[in-house]
Automatic annotation (TrEMBL):
Name the record gives this protein: Transcriptional regulator, TetR family
Region of interest called Disordered, as start-end residue ranges on this chain: 1-20
DNA-binding region boundaries: 44-63
Source organism per UniProt: Sulfitobacter litoralis
Extent of Polar residues compositional bias: 1-13
UniProt keyword annotation of Membrane present: no
Alphabetical keyword list: DNA-binding, Transcription, Transcription regulation
Domain HTH tetR-type: 21-81
Pfam families, A to Z: TetR_N
Domain of life: Bacteria
């Protein structure tokens, strides 16, 4: 081996030994940093291989396509949000309704802090022609969020705080409302990008107020029990998305 080859070998990044789960998480972290910085369309699998310092074979041992990376990133992002919100819910004082409202408030607070990440996902979901990727994002979120919501409603029913005809149906309907929220979110983001943050905030808040009213009815609660309307959080979230 000549001197040049020795220098190249010594300067090359060393492959770290990792357990399979650690390796998968390492690849996802590399992909996430690239996607958030450069956008979905501007990142290739080759870019991810370089960022993660792995071989093509190492990548395909864990993922079959670029879209699989999106699934993993969405699941991680959603899981982190729910993990934080669940911790706040567990620590909250009061009954099931108080804990649920604490959970919802923490979810909003967490989103406010994730401007760049939210912008990436919203751009992916709202861009014309991205229906397939939008569906994958929605399915990945649902897979994690639905069991958590089912657990929250179940505890409320057990405590006698919620009165529902069918827990699965109510949980699924609440999740479905979030799917239908896309048009309202698209309108709000577009209005915010045009410079009218106040109007954008009003549009998003109106939608969430309506969803809260429906959730009150589905859970058998007095009107105004579920606290989804918080204009200050929605304004901060929209500002974070616009300026990300």
């Amino acid at each position: 081996m000549n001197t040049t080859e020795q220098k190249q070998e010594s300067s090359a990044p060393k492959r770290q030994r990792m357990a399979p789960d650690e390796r998968r998480a390492h690849i996802l972290n590399a992909a996430q940093s690239l996607f958030f910085a450069h956008g979905w369309d501007n990142v290739t699998i080759a870019d991810v291989l370089t960022q993660a310092g792995i071989s093509k074979g190492g990548f395909y041992h864990h993922f079959t396509a670029k879209e699989d990376l999106l699934d993993g990133i969405v699941q991680h992002f959603t899981g982190e949000a729910l993990k934080t919100a669940q911790a706040v819910r567990a620590a909250a004082k009061g009954g099931a309704l108080d804990r649920f409202n604490a959970f919802l408030a923490e979810t909003n607070r967490w989103k406010v802090q994730q401007g760049a990440q939210l912008k990436f996902f919203i751009d992916m979901m709202l861009r014309p022609g991205n229906e397939m990727l939008s569906h994958r994002i929605t399915a990945s979120v649902d897979a994690i969020a639905l069991p958590v919501l089912h657990d929250i409603i179940s505890h409320g029913v057990d405590e006698g705080a919620f009165d529902v005809p069918d827990i699965n149906l109510v949980a699924g309907t609440i999740i479905a409302m979030s799917h239908d929220r896309r048009k309202a979110l698209q309108s709000a983001v577009q209005t915010a990008q045009e410079g009218d943050i106040a109007e954008a905030t009003t549009r998003l808040n109106d939608r969430m107020t309506a969803e809260a009213a429906l959730m009150d009815r589905m859970l058998g609660l007095p009107q105004g029990s579920i606290l989804l309307s918080k204009p200050s959080d929605y304004r901060l979230m929209l500002e974070a998305i616009v300026h990300a």
